[in-house]
Amino acid sequence: MKLGLVGYPVGHSLSPWIHERLMEQQNVSGTYELFETSPESFDSYIETLKKEGLDGFNVTVPYKETIIPHLTDLDDSARVLGAVNTVKQTERGWIGYNTDGIGFVDSIKNRFPERLHNEAQILMLGSGGAARGIYHALIQSGVARVDVANRTPAKAEALLEMNDTMVKSKALDLQEAEEDLARYDVVIQTTSVGMSPNHNQAIISLKRLKPGAVVSDIVYRPMETAFLIDAKAQGASLHYGHEMLLQQAVYAFKIWTGTNPDAFKLLDEFESKLKGV
Question: Where does NADP(+) bind (predicted)?
Answer without folding.
Answer: 76, 126-130, 150-155, 218, 241
